[in-house]
Amino acid sequence: MKPVRLAVVGAGLVGKRHAELVAASPFCELVAVCDHDPKLQSIAAACKAPFYRDLEKLFKNCLLYTSDAADERSSVDLG
């Protein structure tokens, strides 16, 4: 079975933990961490995942989990 490809949007306290759990799971592949704050790129690096600030590029490549904070900031139409 192929792992589920996931990205975490919003890398604050909760998003950081989600990224760590996804990265550690044998059933998932963390394909990206996305946040508007470039200082949080270290979270992606620690989980060996790419870091994005552009949600549209991210949406083309994976299923998506969003934290509550990311839901409030996002204005991308998922169609």
Q: How would you sum up this structure, described in words?
A:
By secondary structure, the chain is α/β, with parallel strands linked by helices. 37% of the residues lie in helices and 24% in strands. It has four helices and four strands. Strands 3-2-1-4 form a four-stranded parallel sheet. The protein is globular. It starts with a strand and ends in a 6-residue tail after the last helix. 33% of the residues are buried.
Sum up the structure in keywords.
4 helices, disordered C terminus, alpha/beta, 37% helix, 79 residues, 4-stranded parallel β-sheet
- How far apart lie the N and C ends? 28 Å
User: Any idea what the shape is?
Assistant: globular
**Number of helix segments?**
4
Radius of gyration, CA atoms, in whole angstroms: 11 Å
Spatial ordering of strands, largest sheet = 3-2-1-4
| Sheet having the most strands | 4 strands, parallel
Runs in which pLDDT lies below 50 for 5 or more consecutive residues are: 75-79
